[in-house]
Amino acid sequence: MSTGTEPDRTGEVPVTGTGLEAPASATPAVLRRKGSLPRWAPLGILAVTAAVMAGVVLAIGSGVGLWLFFTAVVYAGATYTASRVVEGARKAADRLVTVVVTSAFLLAMIPLVSVLYTVVSQGWERFDATFFTNSMRGVVGEGGGALHAIQGTLIITGLAAAMSIPVGVLTAIYLVEYGNNSRLARAITFFVDVMTGIPSIVAGLFAYALFALLLGPGVRFGFVGAVALTVLMIPIVVRSTEEMLKIVPNELREASFALGVPKWRTILKVVIPTTAGGIATGITLAIARVIGETAPLLVTVGLATGVNLNPFDGRMATLPVFSYYSYAVPGVPREPFLDRAWTAALVLMLIVMVLNVVARLISKFFAPKTR
User: Fold this and answer.
1) Do 170 and 188 meet the contact criterion of CB atoms below 8 Å apart?
2) What is the 8-class DSSP label of residue 220?
3) Among 98, 180, 336, 341, which one is least packed by beta carbons within 10 Å?
4) 133-366 in CATH: which number?
5) Model's pTM, two decimal places?
6) Following CA atoms 17, 18, 22, 23 in sequence, which dihedral angle do they give, to the nearest 10 degrees?
7) Closest by Cα among 237, 84, 220, 249 to 160
8) Nearest-angstrom CA–CA distance, 371 and 313
9) pLDDT tens across 341-362, in order?
10) DSSP three-state, residue 100
11) Considering only CA atoms, which of 225, 278, 222 is closest in space to residue 247?
């Protein structure tokens, strides 16, 4: 008896009558593929657009900024049109978004590259051994250095780190491990968020007012500046450490609890080592964030021309304040003071860059291994 379904030569029985058969006309449409632009097309379009816009800008007598703007706009439109004709709407939209994102990135890089070039080109003039081995005591014109400012910056920042790191890390541990969204935990989180956004000058005024009430008006020494930087560092350390602790899987804590390990020891031996790299990275970035603050140190530390290694007695020099005063209130002649200001800015920028590189290395080598 025939069932109406005959096997083909391969022995397979075709499925019919289920409504799943593709129409015969659909197969060629599915197999048909759009073309694609050659690899050199984006660069070719960019070169032609830049050349044409250069002629237009020269004709109207405008500058480089307008040429870059016209080139970006016309290049985006030309790329989208060519891709739409050859590759279809989806690929054209993808290319258009790529052009827009790349243009935004290059636009954001312009001020960064400009600042970097300006500081390096202007600060290289006095980037010598004298600048790192001499202070400004007794120096009126040329010569002198920023040894006192470098030492003051390192001492004040080190004191701020010594005070803010334990407070910040322990606060984050409380919020994640013990807070349980309690009223106190919510209040701490609120105040940490508020402290994150306060201007740096407010931190300086707070530290100065605090010590002025305790020791009298006009008080200025290094420890006051360290307190001001501590106020700025604590919320950053709390936030970065809190986020690192939150990504530790609860299974690790539960496994430790199942073995009878108390909570404090679980935190000390399991949770913190798991995120040590991330916590150290956040702390290093927090130090890099505050080491270049000028406003709070202007109020709390002041300026000194000689070396002072005692943060509890007398004014101290710091690189941001040294650079600011050298540029804002130069002597006669002006050029030596301006050269020292730019070199101090270059040294400060190099210190921040080194701290960021250290943070990257810590994150790379101390992060938990996934394999």
Assistant:
1) no
2) -
3) 180
4) 1.10.3720.10
5) 0.77
6) 40
7) 237
8) 53
9) 999 999 999 998 888 888 888 7
10) helix
11) 278
Contact (Cβ atoms closer than 8 angstroms) between residue 236 and residue 203: no
CB proximity list for 199: less than 8 A, separation 6 or greater: 295
81-134 tens-digit pLDDT? 988 888 888 999 999 999 999 999 988 998 889 999 999 998 888 888 888 988
Place of tokens 């830049």: 50
Structure tokens at 173: 């541990």
Give the type of residue at 117: Y
Output the CA angle 363-365-369, nearest 5 degrees. Answer: 95
Tell me what the mean pLDDT of segment 141-168 comes to: 91
The domain segmentation of the chain, as residue ranges, is 41-125, 133-366
Residues in the chain: 371
Two tokens, residue 195: 């402290």
Instruction: Compute the radius of gyration of the chain from its Cα atoms.
Output: 32
8 A C-beta contact, residue 242 and residue 172? yes
